[in-house]
Amino acid sequence: MTPATKAMMPAVAALAAMAVTGALVAAGCSNGATATPKITVTARAGVAPLPPAQGAYFGAWVPPVLGPTYATRGDQGKGKRPSGKASSSPSVSAPATGSPASGEEEVEARNGRTALTGFERDLGRRLDIVQSYVDWKTEFPRKVDTALLEGDRTMLLTWSGTDTQEIVAGKHDALIRARARAIKATGKPIFLRWQRDMDKSSLRDIKIHSPAAYIAAWKHLRTIFKKEKVDNVAWVWCPTARGFGSRAAQPFYPGDDQVDWICVDAQPGGEYEYRDLIETLKIFMEWARGHSKPIMVAEFGVPQAYGTRRAEWLRKAAQTLQNPQIKAVVYFNSNEQAQEPRDRRRRYEVTGDRAAVSALREFATTPYFNPRNLPVTSGG
Question: pTM for the whole thing?
């Protein structure tokens, strides 16, 4: 090797390093992040939902209460809107015939289907993932769940928990077995997001108790599902984005051998006048890069308080989420988390907001978020 060649080597190495960094940034790794780790899951291929080879699935929570709005588009703004705390099943009025419970279920199923297809019409495509919320003791599947399971969408089943110590002690084994068998009987691939937001201090004394108790309960559920041979489930672990900043979330992680997807609830936070999604996700993404798991970003949404900047926020979010480790995103199209009628910082519904709907449509029809190449239509 000549002296001249030796002198050139540092420059060549620097150029190569710049090229690698550029490739990583182009692939969606922000802030010069290292390459995405090899993604692994414990779920059974061909039965449980697996991450796409390229891009990310796009899904949403569209509450059944929006059904009447989509059924009568001319009455937008006049229909009843959800308010207060989130609920797993918005109330509906029973028809004059049939039992009240049966009638309510039929109406909820019809409204759920109408709301879903109306939202998809606005987006100009079918969803990959449709979300459903059930309480710990709620039977599954309800009629609305059966309606949402129709077709080729994959359900993200968000199942609330109960006292973790009681779970570990076996008090709820019969219920857990019943849910495991019901999920298996659907014959559909299902994302199971059990006891999200476990890092919230408000849940600690009520039912979570400690990270150790939560992890023991998580493993107990998985053991029962395994005994029941439930192969169509992918286990989704999902704390809050805020919890990673305070380091409250990390101790609740059950381990790579216990989790299929790592997930985060990523609302901007009611105390911010404006905050881009990249700021909400930053610390979580730094932690997630150390785990060989696909990422799901669930319950993200743009607050109505952002007004004319909602479209801008969504377009930036679409860029932020094009990270090669992120394999699913789920929009929270609901106002249910608003704490009072004037609380627009926790209202994420875009229905009726033309600019926001248009930006979300651009988001959802971007090839990165349409890995199954679903047909794109003209929309509503």
Answer: 0.84
